[in-house]
What we know:
The complex is a heterodimer. By secondary structure, chain A is mainly alpha-helical. Chain A is about 75% helix and about 5% strand. A two-stranded antiparallel ribbon of chain A has the order 1-2. In chain A, a hairpin with a 4-residue loop joins β1 and β2 (about 65-75). The radius of gyration of chain A is 21 Å and the shape is globular. By secondary structure, chain B is mostly helical. Chain B is built from 27 helices and two strands. Chain B has helices spanning about 10-25, 30-55, 85-110, 115-135, 140-155, 165-195, 210-215, 220-235, 245, 250-260, 265-275, 275-280, 290-310, 315-335, 340-365, 380, 385-395, 405-415, 425-450, 465-480, 490-495, 510-530, 540, 545-550, 555-610, 615-630, 635-655; strands spanning about 65-75, 75-85. In chain B, strands 1-2 form a two-stranded antiparallel sheet. Chain B is globular, with a radius of gyration of 32 Å. Classes of the chains: A mainly alpha, B mainly alpha. At the A-B interface, α6, α8, α11, α13 and α16 of A face β1, α5, α6, α25 and α27 of B.
Amino acid sequence: MITALIFLPLVGALFIGVVRENQARGLALGFNALTAIVAFALWRNFDTAAAGVQLMERHAWIPAIGAEYVVAIDGLSLLLVFLTSLIFPFAFFAQRMGRGFCALMLVMQSALYGTFTAQNFVLWFLFYEMSLIPAFLLIKIWGGENLDRAATKFFVYTFLGSVAMLLSFLGIYFARGTFDFAALAALGKTGLLAGKIAWLAFAGIFLGLAVKVPLFPFHTWLPDAYETAPVGVSMVLTGVLSKMGVYGFVRLLLPLFPHQIKIVGPWLLGLAVCSIVFASLAAWAQSDLKRMVAYLSINHLGYCMLGLFALTASATRPLLEMEAALSGVFIQIFNHGITAAALFYFVGLLEQRRGLRGLDDFGGLMQRTPLLCGWMSVAMFSSLGLPGLNGFIGEFLIFKGSFAVAASFTAVAVIGLLVTAIVFMRAMQALFSGRLSENCSAFPDLLRSEKLVVVPVTLVMFAIGIAPQFVLNIFNTTVVHMARLFS
Amino acid sequence: MTSWIVPYLWLIPAAPLAVSLLILSLANSRRTAAAALAITGQIVALVLAVLAFVPTLQQPGWRAFHNFTWFTFGQNALRLGWVLDPLTAAMLLMITFVGLWIFVFSIGYMAGDKNFSRFFAYLSFFSAAMLGLVIANSLLLLFVAWELVGLASYLLIGFWIHKPSAAAAAKKAFITTRIGDIGLFIGLLWLYRSSGTLLFYDGGKGCLENAGLLALGASATFVALLVFCGAVGKSGQFPLHVWLPDAMEGPTPVSALIHAATMVAAGVFLVARVYPIFSLGGIAGVTPSLTVVVWIGVITALMAALIGIAQFDIKRILAYSTVSQLGLMMVSLGVGGVAAGIMHLLAHGFFKALLFLGSGSVIHGCDEEQDIRKMGGLRGAMPVTFFTYAIGMMALSGVPLFFSGAWTKEEILDATTHWPRSHLPHYLMMAGVVLTAIYMTRQMIYVFFGHRRAASEHARESPPVMTIPLIVLAICSIILSVVLTPAWPWLHDYLLGEPAHFQIAQLIQPMLLVSFALVAVGVGLGLLVYRKAAVTDPLAQVQPALFRFLENKMWLDELYARTVIALARMAARTSDLMDRYFWDGLVRAVGGLGQIFGIFSTTFDERAINARVDGGASGTRGLGRFLSARHSGQIQTYLAAVAVGMLALLLLYAWLA
């Protein structure tokens, strides 16, 4: 069933070749409906009370190099599968796109499903790289200004990270002879490698994932890439692709190198705090809406990193706090995916109407398009962590967990919450208030087709903010299991 | 010891919340329906509040709570709950009752606004959040409601969003209070870590009960101070008070409900709610955290009263008065007079709402003019507004015997005398009483006495839908005295959980005479100075420099703009520049190094293998390659660099292994 999930979008990409240009998006959405059904079926067959990975499919592939086709899911994987299934249709709705565009998006979707379910490094890495190439092409071909530079930077940056990671895993394979995640994690407890090689391998994997997340100071590709990418691609990049990094940290780095992480823990926490504080400050200084949202994306993923590092870097690891931080990180992954994608979607709507997307290009929109402003405000308040909306739940749990074990780092990180508020207050003032700008006086308010996209997404934000249990249920057992593993 | 209503307390905020959503889903043109719905929601909440009040009378100090699990993370439950005790019940009554009359007043005041329906939706939403705040039995639930009232305040201050000043004020309010909220949030995390629960009452295990307080121990001071940060922001205490006067950009009923009667009092309420944390480990009721509360309160009360003397905007005078009175309440809590502080909060809710609505009526009558120098002589034109305003003014100034504010102020002054640390707050608060009487007398003279000036020429009385709420609130400001006097200190004892006794001999306390003298001095001074109110303020004629200092709010806004805000902006710009040039530059430098490395390896190949074949050309070709690599094909060179790097690393592995 997982295999079906992974290959359905690929089949869709092939089918796109035979349809007309203006039918491509419909077909892509159709295939998304199919994957959504498969994802739902996965959930029905998934035992939320069982620890560890389930629904495993295992086939021999290239035994000579230890490569197997193994896919399986646990709570975290399932959560990310859901997120992917949610963000892709959302992104397909966000803009017009032709055949090539749709096909590449579907290839990327397939790669993401693979990344989140693969349980063998070779397979995982294959999918991991497979997501990178469509993203590169989408930016390179359909991007905005500076597309060459942004696309190249994106590609080289992440590719370099990948190479470092590949080398590290080759090193591990030569020493230990396995690529299997479960086997590696079991070895990780007692120390995967010895001496300097362990550190080299750690550094390589860390670099690869830190670029992907991205973690300060490996983040400079992100604002350029997100700014230049077409809206739909930006939504997918921030909503799902950035989660590959966080997922990698949880799945690979933390279980494989507990000893190393503990030693450099304070430094990692420092980087996470820098991500949170500097990215939010930089967002404040942006005048381009897309770039602003891009920086806030770094900031929000910084919270995830804070939670992860806090629970592994500290000497004492009370189970309660670890479960809080892990739950917070997982739910934040999901929340950020939805909220950041929604923000990009709204920026896209504004850009479609105005042709520009600077903060100063708008003004007084509340008088002309109250619905657009209202629903966009919900996404903004969700992003700044207003209680009652989804963002707060994740941030509260992360801070609860990390404050207990790393109080001073957390106290500094909380500044990020304040600056995020400033950023959005500034944006709302510039966009919505004051006299109606002449350039905006012919704007249509939310169209019916747009409402059909906006309302369900916003309802999800409210649902998670008010009664988050239904999301937490997906991964509660996984959290308990992982917390035990780490402590 | 429970009551049927406790598990259903949530219905009280739920009623206005449901109404708010309902109105938002209506078309903007359904004005009557919107107003009717909002008022119905408020009446339902009021009835439920009365029903909730009844069981608290059963026996002194009655308290019941209802806890439930919000969600489970890992194997842990996060629990929330609601509590019903005298503090909650009294607040519920005040908020729903005052709120109801402000809703009624708004029908008249907002009649001409094209977003009439939306106004009532926001107002109901605020009411819901505020009611949720007072029933919360968990600091987390309180924080949630706390942020939501902040949102409501933001929406309502910026209600006239086409006005840039309103939008700016809304932004300022949200950000300034959020600074305090960050402190509160850290305090909340700390409390959760130390005591393991955020529930206030949980059958002995709550954080305000013995077990929780024991676990909190020495960190109580820090938790209390962090929580107080939140209160400072919300309740407009120095140094975060700057947003409150600007908040007057909102429609006047908003100022009455949110920025006078209820929301700004939330900070005082919060301190009272978690008072056991503040007073933990105190000697004779003095703890470091409470001492901070006292002095912040003193500074705020005096500073705001002084600034209030030099303002010309009718609403801003009242806004500074609110700041000042909130400072007074904080002082009361700090010196141990919890009941006195809350009594003043409740009484203040009534008469300050009255004053704001009165000012709304005046503004309405004077065609949206807010400058008191352009008013005057309204006594005859607006008799109802005048009389009710006068009652509000006397209640605020503390004219003894008949007005509620007098009794509560007396109680607070009395509490300050018992503070062992210092008597200075006592004397400073006495000065505050004089100042209050002065600025209110000044305002009365400017607005209602003298001859008519530009804006008040054609003033006429407001319609009954606006004057009836004034009359009701004025009557309440007087009859509330019944439960406040020392002869029958019912409210005081109700809040403290003690049985009240009627002793007529206690009625006249020495402090009453003192406060009578203070008010007489204040009003007398006011009359003396301002009897000939002119366009130039008499104080400005005598002391122009001092007056300018006060008129410009002690230049605190300017000071903040040039220090904290400038610094923060600089940090933002620096972060951006660092990103663009330093970090990205570093990346490019590394990339460039890779390129050069690639060129070297190619030229090495060229020289080692091809040198003899075409020796002379290699230098040129190398240069050519260098240049072409600069201009195009970046990826390939990068990849070449990667290949070399891979080789180098593999060699390194071999060497290490």
